[in-house]
Amino acid sequence: MLGEKLFRAVLVTSTLLVTLLVAGIFVTLVGGSLESIATFGLRFLFSTTWDPVKGVFGAATFIVGTLLTSFLALIISLPFSLGVGILLGEYYNRGAVAGTIGVIIDLLASIPSVVYGFWGIAVLVPLVRGLEAKIGVTPYGVGIFTSSLILAVMIVPYSASIASEVIRLVPGDMKRAAYALGSTRYEVVRKIVLTYAQSGILAGIMLSLGRALGETMAVTMVIGNVSKLPTTIFSPGNTLASVIASEFTESTSALHQSAMIELALVLFLLTTLINWIAHQTISRMRNRNA
Amino acid sequence: MHRTANVRSRLFRNRLFEILVFVPGILVTVPFLLVLYHVIAKGIQVINWNLLFSLPKPVGEVGGGIANAIVGTITVVIIAAIVSVPIGVSAGIYLSESRKSRLAGITRMAANLLQSVPSIVIGIVMYSWIVVPLRSFSGFAGGIALAVMMFPVIVKSTEETVNLVPSGLKEASMALGARYHVTILRIVIPTSLSGILSGITLAGARVAGETAPLLFTAFGSPFFNFNIFKPVGAVPLVIYDYAKSPYDNWIQLAWGASFVLIALVLALNLVVRLIKLVHRGYQ
Predict the structure, then answer these.
(1) What is the distance between the alpha carbons of residues A111 and B234, in angstroms, rounded to a whole number?
(2) Is the Cβ–Cβ distance between A190 and A251 less than 8 Å?
(3) Which domain, by its residues, includes A55?
(4) Tally of domains within chain A
(5) N- or C-end of chain B: fewer Cβ atoms within 10 A?
(6) Do A271 and B114 touch (CB under 8 A)?
(7) Rounded Cα distance, A206 and A183, in Å
(8) Contact list, B27 vs chain A (CB under 8 Å)
(9) A25 touching B, CB under 8 A?
(10) ipTM of the complex
(11) Using an 8 Å Cβ cutoff, are B210 and B149 in contact?
(12) pTM as predicted
């Protein structure tokens, strides 16, 4: 029976490894941030100074940059993810139209972030610069707004696919009952489908928010990499992820590096929290329908 | 037919809503088509043997290629697959076989969280775990970083496909006296092979285009490098470096590299679809 035991052991060890990996990532981030935590304490989270020359570090600028780009992207993407979710979940849940749009949504998610970033530099930045010149703000081209546009395109697939999935789970009986009472399709969607699916749709949106918060390359390439608090949505800035990507290999001191690992820790906690809530909601939805 | 004002307004709103749903559905395809158009239109002009099979030239010299980066990307993805496939598939099988166990519940949560860890964070952690102790950026570190990103995808897709294996098949095998591990290896895995393979391919497609985890691990290199403990180049890294450069020649190379990368990722996605299609044909 040795083979049997060995086989079980392999399965269990592999499974444990996945959990240990997550724990290991957390422990490593905390360990790496200790120097920065000891030096700056809680001030780290609220200070807007990021000065590698003087050795003073605060994360507030990047936390603001991250939240600003992500929520702006969320707002821009919302009509699209809801529209596509309802379209694929309710109007065309099978057939050629649904198939084509579904495939494109999948492929939209598979385009590498760095390609979006490069496309952003080459195509989107000049367009935004033109727009900024027209409305009379400093025409940087790069900045918070440009990053949010790219992020919006990148996160639509996540919220749209979850939205269409939960909309498909709405029981047909309820919809048919509403139709039998003489409702139009719009009324059925608004009063039955969206009411029933709202927590799942919200979870999908949170999942896409998690993506936006941690998205690195595309944002790093078009945000302008300026470590100053943005004054308008057209200002250049930096996010937690983009400052790590652009500065980590050039860190000037051990403290500088530790501060950047603490930025990574903040980012990790932020995305983990958002995703955990989203996954709890989704699994509750699935269980209710199982 | 006579319609009251109320009914007319309800029908009008119904029509309006339909438009509100369809328009974004169509618009959402626009950015994809635009990105694809630009990458193909600009990439096709620079794609040639030279780009694919020669090394980069120093600044100022025209020409040069990304052969080192293509080899580097293949190397790190293969390292990632060698590490993540056996562990990921085993964990996926465990989750499906011990569906209700406590460890399974925790691991499912861990896999979800692992999937949500930003790729740049994984890059930093692998820098601390591998690059610092070995005192060198390396293709090996890059491969491990990508392996960490492949895990959750492989674990989940394996669990889902193994869940679909009819319990009758397993019971029949057990009834014939086959041991548990024989049943798993000879019945469960072959039955769900197409699903497991498409999960692995999907995971590979996803990490092949990743840049952030490679910044502090594989690092990039302008030379061919067959020592996996030294820095290696990768196609996404080339795009990142060249996209920001002021040299027109390098920008052209970045378009070429983007073309190569998109072609690779889309081809892998196509393979996933083919595997699923062929599998459906069998059933």
Answers:
(1) 16
(2) no
(3) 2-289
(4) 1
(5) N
(6) no
(7) 31
(8) 80
(9) yes
(10) 0.92
(11) yes
(12) 0.93
